[in-house]
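Researcher: Next entry in the queue.
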Amino acid sequence: MLVLAGSLASPRRTRELNREDNLMPTYMIERFLPGVTASDVRATAARAKHEAVRMTEEGTAVQYLESMFSVEDETGFCLFEGPSREAIREANARAQIPFERIAEVIHISAEEVD
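Model: Structure for this entry, 114 residues:
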């Protein structure tokens, strides 16, 4: 998986690249979760997924994609697709999951490259 964010691609350029491919924008959430266990991470991911489904049912298409967590750094990253940064912020607020920042990214899976 390749994720471009920060200085590699400006927010404007990231939006342009996502729109060129007719993709729903993808957002990466960065979280600092000191002292969490693997069970806590799974529960957090389940809450995020549940709220994304609820929002979609209510008319705002949000999809939880995946999470990664570094035990060593106590840092988690989650990927979502949605119409806006604000929609992703709302999904995480409704799930009561703290986060440090939201960045629009370009997500390229192994299946999408030769």
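Model: The longest strand covers residues 63-70.
Researcher: Noted, moving on.
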